[in-house]
Design a protein that fits this description.
Length: 250
Amino acid sequence: MAILLLADKDAAIGRVAGVLAALENKNIADASQKARKAWGVLAGALTSEAAGMWRRAFSDAGIGTRVIESGQWAALPSVQTLKRLPDAFEKVSIIAACGFTEMRTTETTTAAEGPTVAQRLASTGIMMMTGLPIRIGPKKQKNETKIERRTDDQLFFEIVGGSPPARYRIDARNFDYTCLGAKKTYSAAVNGRVLLKELAATYPDAWLNAGATQLCRGQAGESPYQSLDDLDRELLWLLTLRTSAASGAA
């Protein structure tokens, strides 16, 4: 069995960390780190008795949780990339945003130039005739390797909906924003935020993930995501909550 957080994970992060520290005998720093990286999945592979104990501990702290059986996990749909917005989406359940900074490293090796074969033969001939070590051509040097590091800001949006669920991804920098009409700007990041708010308004029953909530509210702050892997884990949590609620899970 697993324990899933019901509330927004960032809103209760301090209290969640406190309960985890007590349950697992961790210091608060380690518990806080685990709470941030858990993406809503507080514990897994628990016995029925242990799951009940964990749920009571979180309940006593005012934190809602849900117990999930091993067969109740949702199946995360494969990603379908969108270049433009369709006329409509079917039964949208989750709207997500994920922004992070990616470090890119480029390594370039320049081969060193030295004397040509003809120049080496000429140098050898001169030395044999004069006894002087005269070298013709450039001096041989070591290969030069240049390493360049730069940051690359990434921003993605996802829509999950339909039955069975389908998953659509938008790369904010590679999308046709004609659908925004007069609201379209020259900035992909601005266009992406406008599109996100339009989607949230069009599908008010959809759940927003942490990233979408942050952008829709205009909240400044560090992104909780380090890669799309974090978004995968968060969507698995949210989709499992939605499907388990529909099936009447505890």
